[in-house]
Amino acid sequence: MIGQADSTAKLTFRQKAFLGKLIDLYGEIHEPVHYSTVAGKLGLSNSSAYDMLRVLEQKDMVGSQYTTPKEVAGPGRANILFFPTSHAIKVFTSVAKEISDREEWENLKEGILRKLKQVKDSHNTQELLRELLNGAPSARTPLAQCTQLVTAFLLSLEEAKQKIADKGSISSIIRAPVSKLRMSMMTGLVLGLSLADQKVNSLLGNCRKYTDKYEASMQKLNREALVKLHRFIQEAWDALEA
């Protein structure tokens, strides 16, 4: 039997999402389903649903069986029906969590970017800065926590009203290839410039607490999550500099 971690790793995100929908559908009707039913439920073409089911079957996530329609007397054309394997149902808990975490982060990212544009227009960053600092500790994943904290750090720089020349080195680090070291350097530089402003210093309070949380969460990120965070930082920086 394939190990749970190995099984999940061999599925693309699209395959995982499709499998989750199939398991939900199977749980509703409690019997194997025709690929056209799956296609209709998921808004896909019959051929796309069939091809995906066959791919998942090769990965031991889906089984199939042939049946003859009851209304056909004697030999008739058989239908092929699909069902999630017991193995797929067993590993789906971890898959569902991954999908949920990804969707949560996408919603968080889009929400933050939208709010950044709003505060940029209103020239009022303090409320959002406090919201991010207060919300970070309850974030479900290290990526979500890093996203909220690094946005707060960038907002603190915006609040400090530093000159564009002071921001040049930060921008160059943000545009550089992704690495944990560069992202730590960027955070330190941002906070160093920001905390020179007494008002921002007061807003951030115990700055060490936030930087420690950020560093601890960032060290937990795998390469994929680190790239996501790096891209988000670029988007957030562009939104504030627009």
Structural features, described:
The chain is mainly α and 242 residues long. The chain folds into two domains: 4-94, Winged helix-like DNA-binding domain superfamily/Winged helix DNA-binding domain (Arc Repressor Mutant, subunit A), CATH 1.10.10.10; 125-241, no CATH class. The protein has twelve helices and three strands. A three-stranded antiparallel beta sheet has the order 1-3-2. Helix 2 (13-29) crosses helix 5. The longest helix is centred in the middle third of the chain and has 37 residues, at 86-122. It is elongated, with a radius of gyration of 24 Å. Mean pLDDT is 83; it is low at 1-5.
Task: Write a compact overview of the structure shown.
With about 240 residues, this protein is mostly helical. The protein has 12 helices and 3 strands.
